[in-house]
Amino acid sequence: MNENKNIRVVVGMSGGVDSSVTALLLKQQGYEVIGIFMKNWDDTDDDGFCTATEDYDDVIRVANQLDIPYFAVNFEKQYWDKVFTYFLEEYKAGRTPNPDVMCNKEIKFKAFLDHAMSLGADYVATGHYAQTRVNGDKVELLRGFDQNKDQTYFLNQLSSDVLKKVMFPLGHLDKSDVRRIAREHGLVTANKKDSTGICFIGERDFKSFLSEYLPAQPGRMETMSGEDKGSHDGLMYYTIGQRQGLGIGGSGGPWFVVGKDLDRNVLLVESGDDNIYLKSDQLIAEDVNWINEPESETFDCTAKFRYRQKDSHVKVTILSDRRVRVDFKEKESAITPGQSVVFYSGDVCLGGGTINEIYRDQKQLDYVG
Amino acid sequence: MEPIYLDHAATTPMHPNVIKKMNDTMRDVFGNPSSIHHFGRSARAILDDNRRYLAQTIGADEKELYFTSGGTEADNLALIGVALANQNKGKHIITTEIEHHANLHAAEYLESIGFNVTYLPVDEAGYVNPSDLLNYLCDDTILVSIMLINNEVGAIQPIKDIAKLLNGHQAYLHTDAVQAYGLLNIDVNELGVDLLSVSAHKLNGPKGIGFLYAQKDVKFNALQYGGHQERLKRPGTESLPSIVGLRTAIQQIEDNKYSNFKLYSRYRDLFYQRLKESEIEFMVNGNIDQLAPTILNLSFANTKVESLLMSLDLEGIAASSGSACTAGSIEPSHVLTAMYGADHPNTKNSIRFSFGLANNEDQMIEAAERVIKVVKRLTGN
In chain B, which residues fall in CATH 3.90.1150.10? Predict the structure, then answer.
């Protein structure tokens, strides 16, 4: 225990139960723990209410319960430049971005990590449900023990060098254990509701949020054969495979979004969840990151195309530095440009990239947007 | 590692004599000064004695002192109270860009209800130019409010000169003397001010008590309503232990003939000398030969104020940036922005060190060593 007392760990504390317990566990293990709240977004309303202020209050209360120093640091500018700008650009391009992946890459495990290191930290810790494992001179990223909460999907852009400085103290726990530990220690955040959705939107309506930044352009919905199916509110509000909120009546449903025609501002829909237009067997991913460099140019592994999906068997072929082709063992449904494809070998997360092109029977599906 | 407190401009530790006198008062005198029985009368006698003492520390009459909860309330009472009571004479107020937020936010409120406020600029050293005042002073001006010592950089403002310029003009002159009281020997007549704000906890007194001096002819409205205390201008049962605490704090200083000024100067100089001997790069915000000795605001090139403050804290050095921060939003200091212009690097890499009762000479060298260590680490040297 005592050898930990000279190891300085900076915990990213959000004011939620996960990061509260993260700090608690490290404190119990005898580390020198420092809590830091990141303010990445300002949502101050006319009454002066700001979610971040409330959350930081919770950080202060928990930090005082644990008797650790706490600070707040502002990354609004970095977040805007690196995460939010990307988020808007992707929506403008008709794609479905993954801001959490970008936030981990650019903010939590870059700007925040750098800041922690400038404070003389040996490690940073977060409340992510993921694990690390030292393998020789490398560090591997492993799925969280709680398969239902596993967050490695969002951590696919980290590197072994970054992971060497990172601790995930909740990685071996169930979410229910985390709540229980928080309650047993009387942490004020023990029963705080988990945040849902994208951090900067919070509980607000996604559509109204997005429309503040991007003008919505309503248009028509058509089937792949050109049959008119009514109107849509703006292409950016829809994602591939979406079933809810289309408002198409009559027989022959249910209806699904299968693509977007950006030039004509038309949303492409087809009926039935097994319709061929949703299916694909190959994709090209870009901005691919390997947590540790793979040993060969081609290999079999499993992959997730969206968060919380089951793994699928795939074959990966490295095309160039940051570009790979992924062949699926079986046809997949509703692969979406802009989302991450993340690769696994057993419990080891290998890395991932951004889905860019999608193919079926060696023909590119250019209608997916 | 011994923590070293270099944030006396934020607040100060209470002097042991202050604590003792307050304890005595809490134990021995619990009566309400407004009560007409023995208990009330003995409290009232002590209240009056303290008011008289405090009034003479600034050359005022005891009837010109209004106890408040501290500097913020005194500033609010001065600005809003004067504005509301004198709006028939005009709706223009002049203040500066470098005031405390207790002043600036009260001024913003007055703007929101129809007053016009001019915010005077300052030069690169943090001084108001008295002649600027004449550019803005008009028949409609009812109040000029300029602080005596700036709380972020320590610049002592030319209040006397400003008072002279206002001779014969209807406008009242208010000064926020929160950083100055107990450091400079103030005489309101010599200074030429009509209103002056004071807070106890900056001079080793308790928090939650201060006063507004208002020259007897000054018209101002109360901002709260209740009993007859403070001649109706600030109702509410007086906090006698706090008032005794304030008095004891200033008496301590008066009895020592303001020798604290010299002592704190010495602390600051030791700290500053050691930094100058090191190879770290820094500059003083303000003109060091003309600053209040308690405050030293330094800009460290190629650093960020957030990292500096956190790193210093982790090294046991308690300092602050002039700017308040809530939940991670460190606004660039409005004082440094006024001095250098928006986006100047000094507005984002400056730290205020302020010296006082919690310090001794040995600490100054130690504190400087720790600052040097942190700055070296942050600048990669």
Answer: 4-12+258-378
Could you report the per-residue pLDDT of B277-301, keeping only the tens digit for each?
999 999 999 999 889 999 999 999 9
Angstrom distance (rounded) from CA B351 to CA B299:
6
CB atoms under 10 Å from CB of A287, counted, come to: 14
Taking the CA of residue B378 and the nearest CA in chain A, the distance in Å comes to: 6
Write out the H or E segment, with its range, that includes residue B133.
Answer: helix B130-136
| Structural tokens at position A92 | 């403008």
Contacts with B325 from chain A: Cβ below 8 Å: 72
**What is d(CA A174, CA A28) in angstroms, rounded to the nearest whole number?**
18
- Closest partner residue to B327 (CB to CB) among A52, A69, A118 is A52
Q: Which fold has domain B4-12+258-378?
A: Aspartate Aminotransferase, domain 1 (3.90.1150)
- The most distant pair of C-alpha atoms in chain A lies apart, rounded to whole Å, by 71
Residue type, B173: L
Mean pLDDT per segment of 10 residues, for chain B of length 381 residues? Answer: 95 98 97 96 97 98 98 98 98 98 97 98 97 96 98 96 97 98 96 98 98 98 96 97 98 94 95 96 94 95 91 96 64 92 93 96 97 94 72
- Name residue A359's amino acid: Y
Which of 314-343 (B) contact A at CB < 8 A? 314, 325-330
Place of tokens 């660039």: B332
- Inter-chain touch A115–B307, beta carbons under 8 Å: yes
Q: How many angstroms separate the CA atoms of A124 and A129, rounded?
A: 15
B12 to chain A, minimum CA–CA distance in Å? 21
Structure tokens at B15: 């002097």
Tokens of A36: 């830091």
Amino acid at B20: K
Amino acid at A46: D
Neighbours of A54 (CB within 10 A): 11
CA atoms within 13 A on the CB side of A3: 0
Answer whether A359's CB lies under 8 Å from A367's CB. Answer: no
Residue B93 CB coordination number (10 Å):
27
Asked whether B68 and B212 are in contact (CB, 8 A), the reply is yes
CA distance A24 to A68: 10
pLDDT tens-digit map of B346-355: 998 999 999 9
- Classified by CATH at the fold level, domain B16-255 comes out as Aspartate Aminotransferase; domain 2 (3.40.640)
Q: Which of B108, B305, B329, B376 is the mutation pick for testing A, counting most A CBs within 10 A?
A: B329
Q: In this structure, what are the phi and psi dihedrals at residue B118, rounded to the nearest 5 degrees?
A: -105, 130
Q: What is the pLDDT of residue B325?
A: 56
CA distance A169 to A22: 6
Q: How far apart are CA B96 and CA B118, in angstroms?
A: 7
Helix, strand, coil tally for chain B in percent (to 5): 45, 15, 40
Q: Do A118 and B313 touch (CB under 8 A)?
A: no
How many angstroms separate the Cα of B142 from the Cα of each of B108, B184, B196? 16, 27, 16
> Exposed e or buried b for every residue in B306-319, given b needs 16+ CB within 10 A?
bbbbbbbbbbebbb
Q: For chain A, first and last CA: distance in Å?
A: 54
Residue A61 in contact with partner chain B when CB distance is under 8 A: no
| Token pair in block for residue A98 | 């993954």
Contact check, Cβ <8 Å, B327/A55: yes
Report how many Cβ contacts below 8 Å link chain A to chain B. 49
Domains and CATH numbers, chain A: 2-184 (3.40.50.620), 216-271 (2.30.30.280), 276-368 (2.40.30.10)
What three-state secondary structure class fits B304?
coil
Specify the domain boundaries for CATH 3.40.640.10 within chain B.
Answer: 16-255
Distant-in-sequence, close-in-space partners of A147: CB < 8 Å, separation ≥ 6: none
The string of pLDDT tens digits covering residues A311-327 is 999 999 999 989 999 99
